[in-house]
Each structure stands twice: as C-alpha cells, then as structure tokens.
UniProtKB/TrEMBL annotation:
Pfam families per record: DNA_pol_B (PF00136)
EC number(s) given by UniProt: 2.7.7.7
Gene Ontology molecular functions: DNA binding; DNA-directed DNA polymerase activity; nucleotide binding
Record's keyword annotation contains Transferase: yes
Catalyzed chemical reaction(s): DNA(n) + a 2'-deoxyribonucleoside 5'-triphosphate = DNA(n+1) + diphosphate
InterPro entries: DNA-dir_DNA_pol_B, DNA-dir_DNA_pol_B_multi_dom, DNA/RNA_pol_sf, DNA_pol_B_thumb, DNA_pol_palm_dom_sf, DNA_pol_type-B, RNaseH-like_sf
Domain of life, source organism: Archaea
Alphabetical GO biological process terms: DNA-templated DNA replication
Record keywords, A-Z: DNA-binding, DNA-directed DNA polymerase, Nucleotidyltransferase, Transferase
Record-stated family: Belongs to the DNA polymerase type-B family.
Name the record gives this protein: DNA-directed DNA polymerase
Residue ranges of every copy of the DNA-directed DNA polymerase family B multifunctional domain listed in the record: 319-648
Length: 701
C-alpha cells in the first residue's frame, strides 16, 4: 500500500514498497471536487457561469446529504477543478459572487473545501495511505543555535555526529540516505530541508533528500491562538517519495511515535506526513470526515449550527461543566482511585449523543437529565466514529497486559496513547464553534449525563461504607469509612452495570495528599500527589514538578521532599531536607543548565510593555540572531533578578552562573506544595528553618 503521496499542480505521485525497492505510480488525471448548494435557479446560473472558468474541468448535478440532520438528499452542483491548489480559490470566488439577483451573503453553501490535498486525494480516489511494510527511518538533528548560525558541523544523524565541517556533514548525510534509503525523515526542525538542500547546492555536494530532486514548501510559519493560548506552527516542507516528520512541530510524534501515528493514518486515511503535523483536533476531524464520506454526507466549509431556542432555566442548567467534589485537604491513608473508562466518549456512545440525534425533529422526549432534551433512537454519527476507537483501545490495553515482549508492549502503548488523545478531544469538539460535526446541545448533554453518573456513583459508594475524599470529571478517590464496608469491586460492578460504563480500579495508594489553593481556603481541584501501594512509585498531578516551566533541579528537589515525607510522615524532616538543598543552591554548586526555565512566548518582542524576564530572554535571542515568534518556547537561566535589563537572564547555552535567591523562592514554593496538606505554609517553613538554624548556632557557642 501507499506510504507517501506527492501532489504537484498537474500530477500525483503515489509511493509504495516492493520488497527493498520504493516504486512510484503517477496519476495525471486527478481533478478534485467541491460541491455547491443553493436553490435550483441559482445552481443553474452558477453552472452556466463556471463553464467558461479555466480552473473548472467539468460540472454535474447530484443529490447529496448536506447535513447530518438532513432527512433527504438535496440537489447540489459538483465542480471538478483542474488543480488541488485551485479549490480554495474557486470556493472564495463563488462565495463572494455579487451579481444582481444571483449572489449575496448566504446564497451559496460550499462543501468539501478545506480538506488537505493529500487527504482529499486518498478519500476521493479510495487510495489507502497505510504502508503494508515496516517503514525505514532516518533522524537528523541540529540545535537552535547551530541552525541560526547555519553551522552544519553540529548536525547529528541518528544521534551521532557525522562530520567536522559543513562539506563533511553534507557528504555524510548523502551517504546515510543512500545506504538506508529511508521512507521517513525525522527532523529536529523542517527548516533542515532548505538548509541542507541549499548548502549542498552551494558546496557542490550531491545530496538529495527526496527520491526525486528538489523540495516544496507547503506552508510558511505562522502564529495562532487556541482556547486563549498562543501557538506557533513551523514552516512545512515536502520532499518527493519520503515523509517528513518535524518532531518540534508534531504533538503526535511526542505522544504516539510512529506506531500511534500509523494507527491514526489507518483510521482517518490522512497520509502520514499530514498526520505528523496535524493537531489532535485536526486528526479527529479527519476521522469524522472519512466517516462522512462513507455516509455520503458532504462536509461543510464553515460549519455553523445555530443553538436551538431554550427557556432561561434550561440555559442556566445547561451552562455547567462536569461535577467536581472539593477535595478534603490533608494527608489521607488507604485511598483508592477509581475511574470511569473513557467517560465522555462512552456517554456519547451509550446515550447516542450526536448533532443529529440530540433534540431531533422526529420525536419528543425527556432523555437528558436536568435539561429535558430528547435523543433520537436512530444510530448517531458521533457514536459510529467513537465506538471503534473505544473498543480498539480497550483491546490494545488487554494485549499489553498479556504480552511479555517489552518491544511489543511499547508499540502497543504508543497506539493506546494516540487513541487516548483522540478520545480526550472528541468531547471538546462538540462545543467548538469551528467543529465540522459539533453542536452545543451535544456538549451540554454530555456534561448533564456526566454529572448524574458521578452523583449516582457517590451515592452507591457511600451506601456501601466508603467516603469520597475527592472527585473530578471521571475519577473518584475513596477511603473505607467502616470496618464492615462492602468490597469496592462489588460496588464498582454495580455502578458499571447501572451506567453501562466500566468503573475501573485505577490505583491503591498508601497515602495521598490533596493540596490547598494558594489562599488556603479550599482544596485545589487538580493538585495532589501520593504513594502508590505495593510499588516504589508516586503519582503527581498539578504540583510544580508537573509544570513545564519548572526547572529540572526544582523538580528533582520536590521529588526528594515527597520521598522524605513518605519516609517520615512528619513535616519537620521535610523542612530539614529542604535546608540541605537550599545550602547546596546557595553555595553555587548546582549546574546552571538544570536551572533552565522554559516558557512560551505570547506576543512579539515589541508588544511587551514591561521589561520582564521573557523580554530579557527575547532580547538575548535577538542578539544571537535567533528570532522567537509568539507560540515558541524560550529557555533561560535567571542570573540577577534585581536587574531589569537583558543582563537579568542568560540563555541556556550561555549560562555559567545563577541567582541563588531567585531559585530559593522556587524551592520554597515547591516545598509549600508538599507541606501545605500538613498545614505548613511558606511562612511556617521559613520560621522553622530560621528557628532551627538559631538553635544550632546556639548549641555551638
């Protein structure tokens, strides 16, 4: 089967393997299609107009479903376009027609527009992009600093240096490509494509990254905002006959590696290269689009599903999230964590929640708790997408439990991780305004069922002699309340049968600490840590060592403090342990690299109003010719936090010193997270250390 697809203006190349050899098949007749919906007279006029458009190969009238909620197919105009790159151009021209009596906003509804080119080709021609043989990989990596300086001598191939100067490196890369004939190039940044190609040309080295000459830039770098967070998308490149995976710009490579990515390729038919740079939401949408093709439903260009009318009381009840129980702050022993398996996806499947089934027009009912929405009995679109993923993930987890082959277990875990993120995404996309197949009432219904399920579970557990000490979204933490409490597995079996969703035993804890909020007034919903029973293992959630900005050294100290707490179960030894680390830090003996802070840039350098640490770091990046765009990460060490200039910090590769008092504050914050469940805040920790130090000094006088 095909493992790579190349698309140029007038030809498509499909690459597959025949044993050791890569073979290519060309398709010069491909004409991608878009669809237009309107009244019959408007479609007839548009058909006549498009006959003279040089971008158009042919047109035809068809009857197609234009919505999941459509009862019958509607008349649409299929327009076959000469080149894939012209789909978007023609769609915008049609959308902006302003002919008297023939155009205007909303006159023409367009379908199958914003589908990526290679994915579109596979769907429209029924070309399966799943490789039938194991792919061969070659990894090339270059640091950001070397990339900015165009210093190829620092480049590594499969983790090993391959030359002392640029020409030697270029020749070494060419030799590695010839010897390994890779199908996938795993790059630290896609910018290596033009850098290596241009350097090879300038130095007269015969280096060809693809199986044919040249490369193509698919997209420029860009900045975007999603859910209030600024992100950065690197430039994307294509080389003939090979897939490029830019691991700096691939969430899925970090979560699922190649096995996980190939699993999603098989489900979506989105070719590997497009899967590699796609977000989880993008891949989930692709799986839905493939399902829509199979259902013969057209994909809306800019989906807009109006929220149905509802009374104010329903609006109030619907505008809520999942149920949470405020955690009981403190140190708790003998705690069990139980989780509903893929709760939100399972709710969608068990209760048949989908844009076309919730508040359907075919019947009236009171099916959704709290909200009173009806749900149709006809099989829903979203459950048809999710149920295979839920079932397959459960089967993969069972195979992991059964296998004794570590390599096989690792491959299966990568697939499980990739599917986990699809299931995490599917809920949010029901309430996402740009979702192709989402609807706010589905999002509200999922939350309503989730709240009811958690409350019902709490009632059963408490009746069985267990106390719920915390609960959030799909997880509950419980402790036995009485000596004659019912066995927990019996209670979870009862709940699982009642809800038709498995309530699984996640972990037994020797102890768990639930951390208070900063003001100490209540429990923080997502901050806790604990010792897993029977294993030398801890689980951490929300505290500093799980935060991406926390320096490695601070995270290591916090782990050590948790280990000390486990050993002594008292706050004083933990504070004493902190004192040792503070002495080490203040003596200057900590490696500055382990104090690196990683943070994400939210705006351009000239948009910042204050001279903070981020600005200081960005100025230093600029000094080195290393531009950082919004959404990209920066890495720096604080060397003098009293300064307000760029001298306040050093970049990671510059640092040979650090500001001990700045990092001491971070250690106190980390220690407070560990000790606050025992009612020791930062002031009490400092007071204890000061008093202890005074006592020790007195004892030596």
């Amino acid at each position: 089967m095909v493992f790579a697809v190349d698309i140029e203006d007038d030809v498509v190349r499909m690459w597959s393997r025949n044993g050791e050899d890569a073979v290519v098949e060309r398709d010069g007749s491909y004409a991608p299609s878009l669809y237009v919906g309107a009244t019959d007279d408007k479609l007839g006029w548009l058909d006549d107009r498009l006959t003279s458009d040089l971008k158009v190969v042919r047109t035809a009238f068809e009857a197609r479903l234009t919505s999941l909620r459509a009862d019958e197919p509607a008349a649409v105009l299929r327009v076959d376009v000469e080149r894939p790159s012209e789909i978007d151009t023609l769609a915008r021209e049609i959308r902006t027609i302003h002919e008297p009596e023939q155009g205007g906003p909303g006159t023409y509804r367009l379908f199958n527009i914003d589908i990526s080119p290679k994915f579109r080709y596979c769907l429209e021609t029924e070309t399966c992009p799943v490789p039938s043989e194991e792919l061969r990989l070659l990894s090339l990596s270059l640091s950001d600093r070397a990339l900015a300086n165009r210093d190829l001598s620092k480049l590594t191939c499969n983790g090993e240096p391959i030359g002392e100067n640029s020409v030697a490196v270029l020749e070494g890369v060419a030799q590695q490509i010839e010897e390994h004939d890779p199908d996938v190039l795993v790059l630290s940044t896609a910018d290596l494509v033009p850098l290596l190609s241009d350097a090879a040309r300038d130095n007269g080295v015969d280096l060809q990254l693809g199986r044919l000459p040249g490369y193509q830039q698919l997209a420029s770098e860009s900045t975007f905002e999603s859910y209030g967070r600024v992100g950065h998308s690197a430039a994307r490149y294509d080389v003939p006959g090979r897939t490029i995976v830019d691991w700096s710009n691939s969430f899925l490579w970090g979560e699922g590696r190649l096995p996980g990515m190939l699993d999603l390729v098989e489900r979506s038919w989105k070719p590997l290269q497009e899967t590699a740079w796609g977000s989880i939401g993008n891949i989930f949408t692709a799986i839905q689009i493939r399902q829509a093709f199979e259902w013969d439903v057209l994909v809306p260009w800019r989906a807009w599903e109006a929220e149905s009318f509802k009374p104010m009381r329903t609006l109030h009840d619907a505008d809520r999230g999942g149920f949470t129980f405020e955690p009981d702050v403190g140190f708790h022993e003998n705690v069990v964590e139980i989780d509903f398996a893929s709760l939100y996806p399972n709710i969608m499947c068990v209760h048949n929640l989908s844009p076309e089934t919730v508040r359907c027009t075919c019947h009236d009912g009171d099916d959704v708790p709290w909200l009173g929405y009806s749900v149709c009995d006809e099989p829903g679109f979203v459950p048809s997408v999710l149920q295979p993923i839920i079932d397959d993930r459960a089967a993969l987890k069972q195979r992991i439990r059964e296998t004794d082959d570590p390599e096989e277990a690792r491959r299966l875990e990568h697939r499980v991780d990739a599917l986990k993120w699809i299931l995490v995404t599917c809920f949010g996309y029901q309430g996402f305004s740009n979702s192709k197949f989402g609807r706010i009432e589905v999002h509200e219904s999922i939350n309503a069922f989730a709240r009811e399920i958690i409350l019902d579970a709490k009632e059963v557990l408490e009746a069985g002699g267990w106390t719920v000490v915390h609960g959030i979204v799909d997880s509950l933490w419980v402790t036995p309340r009485e000596d004659d409490h019912a066995p927990l597995d019996e209670l979870t079996d009862v709940i699982s049968r009642e809800q038709e969703i498995d309530l699984e035993h996640e972990d037994d804890f020797e102890w768990v600490c639930f951390v208070p909020t900063k003001d100490g007034q209540r429990g923080a919903l997502t901050k806790y840590f604990g010792k897993v029973a029977g294993r030398d293992e801890y689980k951490y959630r929300g505290i500093e060592l799980r935060q991406r900005s926390t320096p490695e050294y601070v995270a290591d100290v916090q782990r050590d403090l948790v280990d000390t707490l486990d050993e002594h179960r008292e706050p004083e030894p933990v504070a004493d342990r902190l004192a040792r680390h503070l002495n080490e830090l203040r003596s200057g003996s900590v490696d500055p690299e382990k104090l690196t802070i990683q943070t994400r840039v939210s705006k351009p350098l000239n948009a910042y109003q204050q001279q903070n640490r981020t600005v200081a770091a960005l100025q230093r990046y600029e000094d080195h010719g290393m531009e950082r765009s919004p959404g990209q990460d920066i890495h720096y060490v604080v060397v003098d936090d009293d300064k307000r200039s760029r001298e306040r910090v050093r970049l990671q590769f510059e640092a040979d010193d650090y500001d001990p008092e700045f990092y001491a504050k971070l250690l106190f914050r980390a220690a407070e997270s560990v000790l606050s469940p025992l009612e020791w805040d930062r002031d009490r920790i400092k007071r204890y250390l000061r008093d202890t130090q005074n006592a020790r000094l007195t004892s030596y006088s």
